[in-house]
Amino acid sequence: MNDFNYFMRRIYYPQFAQEIVRALYKEVDRLGKLLETNKSVFEHPRQYTSVEDSTIETLIAYINDDTISTMEKREAVQNLINSRIEKSRKIAINIGDKTPSGGYNFAEGLEAYPTNAPRQMTWDEAQEYCASLGDGWRLPTKEELNLMYTNLKMAGLGGFSGARLWSSSQNYSNDAWVQYFSYGDQYNYNKNYDSSVRACRAF
Length: 203
Hints:
Number of helices: 6
Mean pLDDT: 76
Strand order of the largest sheet: 1-2-6
Radius of gyration: 22 Å
Oligomer: single chain
CATH topology of the largest domain: Mannose-Binding Protein A, Chain A
CATH architecture of the largest domain: Roll
CATH class of the largest domain: Alpha Beta
Order of helices and strands: HHHHEEHHEEEE
Number of domains: 2
């Protein structure tokens, strides 16, 4: 970020807190607008929202507090920048869009893995497969699976076939819910039988 070191240096002087924070937020919003038009970061149009005045005033008070160390103030400003960039990134992605990792956004803050698992598997194997992908990938709940069907499969997105897919939602000790992506219905299915798998995670 341009002038970031300048902002960090000025935090040593709390009497300039209001000037510092307002200038910082202006710079963060400028960066957000760059994200809106940077096609190398995302593949779809951008949206961005400005910072609320109440958040600005909170940070000004924090920087003016003499009981808080300079290091803590620097960390607070860095966290602010990171959170604003993250919020901008999430706002920018609409339902059905590809996410930065190559998955598909199927609900607010949730993405589906780019492809189904390479083979059908039992419910226990499906849980292990999703966990093996790392980075928070997991088997979707039955509600999440239905959102994948509604928001992706029905819209012709995500590369889904008419496969039967496992959910993480159990029904009795031996059964779990599956959804048929050929017509959308959900049924109980024996965990020892094989079904297809599509992982999901929060992003």
